[in-house]
Amino acid sequence: MATSEAVYRAISEHDVVFRADCPSRPILDQIADKWSMMVMAVLVEPRRFNEIKRRLDGVTQRVLTQTLRRLERNGMVERRVLPTSPVGVEYSLTSLGESLREPFAHLYDWTVANAAKIQARQRDYDQRAPR
Fold it and tell me: Which DSSP string do the residues of 104-129 spell out, in sequence order?
């Protein structure tokens, strides 16, 4: 049995993640958030706030600020004040954040590979769903 299958079986048999007090829940909520995933993907190298914002079409300044703060709080992103005038700030992945690069790549690859199938299912559902 593959490792991920063993983990999924253990989780489902013991309802570990399904408990409201499970410490993994807020972490999963953070890293599964679309903006968190995109920010971490953009941070292949250190970047300033506005550079991150320009690369993430549709993100607001407020949401990006909140996302970066949560990622920093969780140890995924490091914020470094640059000795420039005016003062600049640069964000980069920590080693913990880097460790998510491979799992995110698998998820992204799966998403791209299945996007057309999912969109077709959505259209089928929308056509037959009562309104």
Answer: HHHHHHHHHHHHHHHHHHHHHHHHHS
Whole-model pTM: value is: 0.77
Judged by DSSP in three states, 80 sits in: strand
DSSP state of 30: H
Instruction: Give the position of tokens 């969109």.
Output: 119
What b/e string do you get for 16-44 counting C-beta neighbours within 10 Å, with b at 16 or more?
eeeeeeeeeeeeeeebebebbbbbbebbe
pLDDT tens column, 67-124: 999 999 999 999 999 998 888 999 999 999 999 989 988 988 999 999 999 999 999 9
How far apart CA 105 and CA 113 sit, in angstroms, is: 12
In degrees and rounded to multiples of 5, residue 77 shows phi and psi of -130, 145
Nearest-5° Cα angle at 59, 53 to 64: 65
Residue 90: enclosing H or E segment and its boundaries?
strand 88-93
